[in-house]
Amino acid sequence: SSGINAEYGGSEVDSLKGGVAGGSLLKGVLKVGQEIEVRPGITTKDAEGNLHCVPIRSRVLTMFAENNDLQYAVPGGLIGVGTKIDPTLCIGDRLVGHVIGSEGSLPPIYTLIEIQYHLMRRLLGVRTEGKSKGAKVDNLSKNEVLLVNIGSLSAGGRVSAIRETKNKHGAVDKRAKVILTSAVCTDVGEKIAISRKINKHWRLIGWGTIKGGQKMAI
């Protein structure tokens, strides 16, 4: 099921190879010959702008760490995973941030996430004129565009709702719903970083935890 890329010109069919995924195993064991799934996979938009995802199914053909071939891998360190995935789907970092795992074992795909967030008091590395301290970080606002980092994936997002409540100890619980510009395979409890565009640059303004969201039907 390999596709033909420009660099394969003149190659024999038997010598064509599938795409190689690189990354770290977070949990479990990955073995050569194992049937795998890649999520979110191939993402498209319909006429209304709604996202649709088709997970990619494949098989592990080879695995290696540095120059060593592996038969199985466990969490820790970086590994390369040779698959039967069409190489044209892998070029240009198209699958960066996607998740590989056994079929049926991966987390849901979200298009909207609800987060519990914390903002920094002041921006790091950004000063206001005439002041030695960094600029103050304003609270999130509805319809604001943010950049959220979930694992190795960076996704744009628009704030659709904000809610603040106080618990019995007086601490403020800040929540926000963020509509993502790209689908994300993640889980409740995952940590995220939040950035805002300031002076034409994305600047880190806070962090948060995913508490829920809108799952995509596959």
Describe the structure.
The strands form four sheets. Strands 1, 3, 4, 5, 7 and 8 form a six-stranded antiparallel beta sheet that branches. Strands 9-14-13-12-15-16 form a six-stranded antiparallel beta barrel. The protein has strands at residues 20-23, 30-31, 35-45, 51-65, 68-70, 72-73, 79-83, 99-102, 109-119, 122-127, 134-136, 145-150, 153-166, 172-185, 191-198, 201-215. A hairpin with a 2-residue loop joins strand 15 and strand 16. The two termini are 22 Å apart. By secondary structure, the chain is mainly beta. The radius of gyration is 21 Å and the shape is elongated.
Task: Compute the number of helices.
Answer: 0
Q: Give the fraction of residues assigned to helices.
A: under 10%
Average pLDDT, all residues? 85
Poorly predicted tracts of residues: 1-11
Order of helices and strands: EEEEEEEEEEEEEEEE
What's the total number of strands? 16
Biggest pleated sheet: 6 strands, antiparallel
Shape: elongated
Indicate the proportion of strand residues.
over 45%
The Rg value, from CA coordinates, equals 21 Å
Category from helices, strands and their pairing: mainly beta
Distance between the termini: 22 Å
Indicate the topology:
Blueprint (H helix, E strand, L loop, with lengths): L19 E4 L6 E2 L3 E11 L5 E15 L2 E3 L1 E2 L5 E5 L15 E4 L6 E11 L2 E6 L6 E3 L8 E6 L2 E14 L5 E14 L5 E8 L2 E15 L3
